[in-house]
Amino acid sequence: MASKIKIFVSYAHRDESLLKKLKMHLKPLLRQGLIDLWYDRNISAGADWEREIDKHLETAQIILLLVSPDFIDSDYCHGIEVRRAKERHERGDAIIIPTILRPIKWQWLLGDFQALPTSTKPVRLWRNQDEAFLDVANGIQRVVDKLIARRSVSLSPPKPTDSQREASVEPEYTQSRRQRITYAAVWPTIYEYDAAFRDASTTVYDADVKAGKLSYDSRPLRLNLGSKYVSVYKMSDWVVKCFFTNILINDLTIAPPPDIRERYQAINDYISQHRPQLPFLVPQIWVEKGIKIDGQGWPFIKSKFIQAPTLGVFLADRHQESFVNATLAKQWLEMINTLEALNMAHGDLNITNVLVCDTFPNLTLRLVDFDSMYVPTLEGRTLYELGDEHFQPIQPGVRRFNNEMDRFSALVIYLSLIALDEDTQLWDRCKANEDTKLLLGSDDFRDLGNSAASKLLRAKRSNRELQQCLDELERSILEQRMPRSLADVLQVRQSVRQAPHDDTSMELPINLPIQDPPS
Ligand SMILES: Nc1ncnc2c1ncn2[C@@H]1O[C@H](COP(=O)(O)OP(=O)(O)OP(=O)(O)O)[C@@H](O)[C@H]1O
Ligand SMILES: [Mg+2]
Fold it and tell me: Above 60 in pLDDT, residue 182?
């Protein structure tokens, strides 16, 4: 079994009772052998405690800071451990998770990090502390999942298939990893971007973004968490995406695809040719000279900020209304059919890249994040993203960079929506949540026959559409292939919607404007 994710806990001794409660909520992860939790009570009698602490702090992949007035007041926790933790976080060696136990103004010290509970309301102020700790444990689990997924990508290249072996062709992922290493040092680091955005009035060239205010008062500095090579900031009405070079724990360096500029050019050209059919794509504008770092202008991508929840957040809140699920399922099918008909694929459909706009019954879906998008003019390019494991085939090599890339995710999302329409309780029973998975996830795909969630869905025998989707999912996994298109599975006609759209964001130039800096 792979080694456990090491978690170091920095806390004030007055908060020990709360730490014990948190530990109880982490029991499932401990029992599964996924994590190893270390805090100073684990030091055996007679050991050199300072050295022991150092040793564990230096090797942990996650550093939990249990924040309270006593924690901030403690010279050791706040002084030594936080400083060291920040250094390791900045080098990309560890991830800091501040966990807010008791009220204190913590943002000035730790505002750059994604804190828990998700709402950042201190655990002590929750009416039900178990709920608070459950939220914290879920947040930790998400980071653990990401680290495990990252490890499986970086340490275990997929085995070549027979035909690849015969033809001596390297599997696609291995090739792309090599290229990433070669092109590694091309972009600034994430910390250079963080610093530059804090000082936007002097660093940003783009007039819209320069006029914006960086939003991070009580929230993390970035909109995204733990990304491989993109950093996303909100500047008033704009969302800005930057590409960075990432140095990983095992000295592996990851950078964006070397042809990222060309890809966005091709994507935006293609979208602009088919703009009336694609009102659901939030325009992503490439700004060639976006921000100054180290005396040089760097590109970024800007998109109008859409004030709307992600599909995950929306469903977590509204899944109990079966009409809402039915409306979303219909929209989803239309959107996927349109992409299919235009021979394109978003490439990373999940519950965070889909936004739910407007109000029922006029709900509309929008897609953001085109980093993995396929359009026909990009045929033959390399696949760079494995995608979100809860929305992608588990077998390596099944997902290839082509117009079929969305089929697995489209099916998983669609079947979740129609199943929720049938029985809203499936949300809880299948352990769906707002930012990781819907009704089925990677554990289910690995063993669909024994998956409890799959059995619950199979029990809805009279729902023909749902059973057709499950049949296709099962067969595609068994046969190690992409599922057929949703239209084929459901035997519906693939029609392209030509609806004009009244969205103001569509007035933006969708092509790549190369913007000069204001003089
Ligand atoms: N224009 C926008 N309006 C509103 N929210 C947005 C917009 N663009 C992005 N977001 C939000 O920010 C999140 C991160 O952006 P994006 O998906 O582009 O980054 P990412 O490449 O997926 O980063 P990561 O790999 O860390 O998830 C999205 O999941 C979405 O919730
Ligand atoms: Mg995304």
Answer: no
Q: Give residue 223 CA to ligand 1 midpoint distance, Å.
A: 7
Residues 6+ positions from 206 with CB-CB distance below 8 Å: 287, 289, 290, 291, 300, 302, 515, 517
Answer whether 346 contacts ligand 1 (Cβ < 6 A): no
Higher pLDDT, 444 or 107: 444
**Residue 284: nearest ligand to its CA?**
1
- Integer CA distances (angstroms), 259 to 73, 97, 242, 266, 271, in order: 49, 34, 15, 11, 18
Alpha carbon distance 474, 454 (integer Å):
10
Tell me the ligand closest to 436's alpha carbon: 1
CATH architecture assignment, domain 311-490: Orthogonal Bundle (1.10)
CATH superfamily name and code, 5-150: Toll/interleukin-1 receptor homology (TIR) domain (3.40.50.10140)
- The full set of domain ranges for the chain reads 5-150, 182-306+511-515, 311-490
CB-ligand 1 contact for 350 (6 Å cutoff): no
Look at ligand 1, atom 24, and give the residue with the nearest C-alpha: 227
Residue 403, pLDDT score: 97
Bridge-based pairing state of the strands 253-254 and 246-247: antiparallel
Containing 174, the helix (H) or strand (E) segment is helix 172-182
- φ, ψ for residue 182, nearest 5 deg: -60, -40
Predicted confidence at residue 40, as pLDDT, reads: 84
Q: At what angle do helices 16-25 and 129-155 cross, to 10 degrees?
A: 60
Instruction: Phi first, then psi: give them for residue 247, nearest 5 degrees.
Output: -100, 115
- Between strands 253-254 and 238-243, the pairing is unpaired
Over the range 327-346, which residues count as b (16 or more CB within 10 Å of their CB) and which as e?
Answer: bbbebbbbbbbbbbbbebbb
Q: Which atom of ligand 1 is nearest to the CA of 308?
A: 4
Contact 241/227 with Cβ under 8 angstroms? no
Measured in Å, residue 243 CA sits from the centre of ligand 1 at 13
CA distance linking residue 372 with residue 262, whole number of Å: 13
Query: Residue 148: pLDDT above 50?
Result: yes
Cβ of residue 306 lying under 6 Å from some atom of ligand 1:
yes
The token pair at 355 is 């936004």
Give the span between the Cα atoms of 279 and 355, in whole angstroms.
Answer: 13
